[in-house]
Amino acid sequence: MGMDLSGKRLLILGGSRISCEIVRHARAMGIVCGVTDWYALERSPAKRMADEAYYTSTSDIEAMVSLIREKNFDGVITGFTDSVLPYYAEICGKAGLPAYGTREQFETFIDKRKYKALMRQFQVPTIPEYFLTRDNFEEAADAIEYPVIVKPSESSGARGITICHSREELAAALDFAARTSESSETVVERYIDGPEATIFWLFVDGNYYLMMLGNRHVKHNQEGVIPLPAGYTFPSAVQPLFLREDAPKMEAMFRSMGIRNGMLFMQSKIQDGHCLVYDIGYRLTGSLEYINLKAVCGYDPMDMLIRFALTGDMGEPEIAKKADPYFGGKYTYNVSLLCRPGKIGTITGLPEIERLPGVIRAVVAHPEGDEITEKMKGLLAQITVRILGKADDIDSMKREMLEIQRLAHVISTDGEEMILPGLEESDFEGTVYVPSEGR
C-alpha cells in the first residue's frame, strides 16, 4: 500500500484487554505503541503489552495534549468504548492530529435519543419507542404495551438494560437505566423478541461501503437478562433487500452528518425482512469482524484506522474492489462462547479448534484465572472466547460452528462447565444468504 509506518509512535486511549488487539496490529506494522488510562498496570492489560505505559486520564484533555507533545506521538487511536470517543476527537483537534470523526458526530451516535431522531428524519427503520421518563411516569405508563426494553441514553456493552413486563418492573428499570447513563436520560422501546442482524459500514474519504451484514444469533440461555449473541453468520439472507431499500437511506443520513472516514456498526432486529436499528457504534467493535474481513476480502479495517491515526489516510486505494459484502460467494462466521458467573480454572479445546480447516483465529477475552462476576451477567463481558472462521458453503460453516461448540470447554475452579448453551441446528434455517435467491 506504499505506507511504511515503521518507527511511528501511536498513543492508544484505554488499556482494556480488547485494546491489546490494537497493540498487536500496530506492532505488526512496526509501530511503537503507548497506552494510557488512569488504571493501575495490573488492571490495564494493553499497558502491559505496549512499549510504553502512561497514567494520564483520557478525559483530561490538556494533560493528554501535553503527553502527546512531550513524548512525540505521531497519532492517537481509541477502539471499543463509546465514552472515550468525544475526548479522542477533542484531543486530536488540539494536538493537530487526525481524528476520523468529530466530537459532534460521536456525541450523536453515542446518544440513543439523538440518533433515533436522526434515523426517523431519513426514514431509516428503527424500533418504535415511548417518550416516557420518571417525571411523566404516572400519566404515560398506562399507555405502555408490554413488554418493553429500557436503556440508558448513553451506554454500550448492554449496560443498564432491562426488559420489563409490568408497570412495577418499568419503574425500577427507569431508575436503573438513569443511574447508568451519564446524562440520566433513558430510552423506552417496544421489545421485539426475534431474529437480529448487525450491519457494518466502512467510510473512506466520503465514500460509503457496506462491509458485511450478518445474523446476530442471540440466545435465551439465562433468566432475567437480555439475550446475548452466541454467534454471527455472514452474509444474512436479508442483505439483498437491505441494499436495495434501506442502505440508500442510511447513506443519505451519513452524508447529512458529514461522515468521511472510519467504520460504524448497527445492531438491529429483523422484521418483515428489514433491519430495525436499535444500537449504533461509530468505532471498532468487540465482535472482531476485521479478522473475518482480512481473511475473506483482503482488507483490514483495524489496520486502516491505525494508518489513518498516523497519516490522515485510510490507506486502501482499491477498497472499492475489495469491499464485497457477498465475499465472492464465500461465507464467514463468529462463534461467541458465553460463560456463566464463576472463576475460570481451565480453557480446553482451543488447539483442536484452531486446526479446523475454516478457523481463522481464536481470541480469548477472559483467560484462565479471570472471573465472570454476577455483575457481568447480561453484559457482553460474558463472552469469554470468540472463534472467527470462514467457509465455502453454508453446510460447511454450520458443521464447523457446531463442532467448535462441541470441542470448547471452560471449566471453573469448582470443576463445573461454564459455557452456556449456544447455537443449534435451527439457528441456521432461513437466516443465511443463498445465492440462488438472487440479489
Give a written overview of the molecule.
It is built from 14 helices and 19 strands. With 439 residues, the chain is of the alpha+beta class. It has three domains: 9-99, Rossmann fold; 128-190, 2-Layer Sandwich (Dna Ligase, domain 1); 196-437, 2-Layer Sandwich (D-amino Acid Aminotransferase, Chain A, domain 1), CATH 3.30.470.20. Strands 13-12-9-10-11-14-18-16 form an eight-stranded antiparallel sheet, with helices on both faces. It has a four-stranded parallel sheet with strand order 3-2-1-4, sandwiched between helices. Helix 3 crosses helix 4 and helix 4 packs antiparallel against helix 5. It is globular and about 60 Å long. The model has no long low-confidence stretch (mean pLDDT 93).
Features:
Rossmann fold; eight-stranded antiparallel beta sheet; 439 residues; D-amino Acid Aminotransferase, Chain A, domain 1; Dna Ligase, domain 1; alpha+beta
